[in-house]
Amino acid sequence: MTSRPHVPPDHLSWKVWAAVAVGGFTGTEVRYLLGVVFPEPPGAYPWTTLAINVAGSLLLGWLTASWAAGARTPRWLQAGLGPGLIGSFTTFSAVALATLAEPALLVPYLGLSLVLGLAAAAAGIALARRTAA
């Protein structure tokens, strides 16, 4: 009887881990750059954070629906773009910090973030379905 070498599941391969790390680094740096270019003064409405999170929701909706429709994208690239790039680009911690720093924003900002984020994700899904057809 011959033994086969252990092959880790695709989601545990070094390519997946490396892609998530590179995507995470890139998403974080892009988010930081946008914060520098479009700063949010203390007490002001956090439009930059909102725009980043809505744009990320749109992109993630589009990518996810494209992959679900059968787009032939390697698993390592899906992980690098989804949890890596977009996951680090969009962060709920930035929303939480903005609302804690300015309590008057708590309900309107969280509500707007949720509504626009869901609408953007739905738009991304619809766009992917339309372009796949």
TrEMBL record:
The keyword Flavoprotein does not apply. One of its GO terms (cellular component) is plasma membrane. Keywords: Cell membrane, Ion channel, Ion transport, Membrane, Metal-binding, Sodium, Transmembrane, Transmembrane helix, Transport. InterPro entries: FluC. The chain crosses the membrane at residues 12-34, 46-69, 81-100, 106-128. The keyword Transmembrane applies. It is found in: Cell membrane. Na(+) is not transported, but it plays an essential structural role and its presence is essential for fluoride channel function. It is a multi-pass membrane protein. Na(+) binds at residues 87, 90. One of its GO terms (molecular function) is metal ion binding. It catalyses: fluoride(in) = fluoride(out). Its main location: membrane. One of its GO terms (biological process) is cellular detoxification of fluoride. HAMAP family: FluC (MF_00454). Fluoride-specific ion channel. Important for reducing fluoride concentration in the cell, thus reducing its toxicity. Belongs to the fluoride channel Fluc/FEX (TC 1.A.43) family. This is Fluoride-specific ion channel FluC. The gene is fluC.
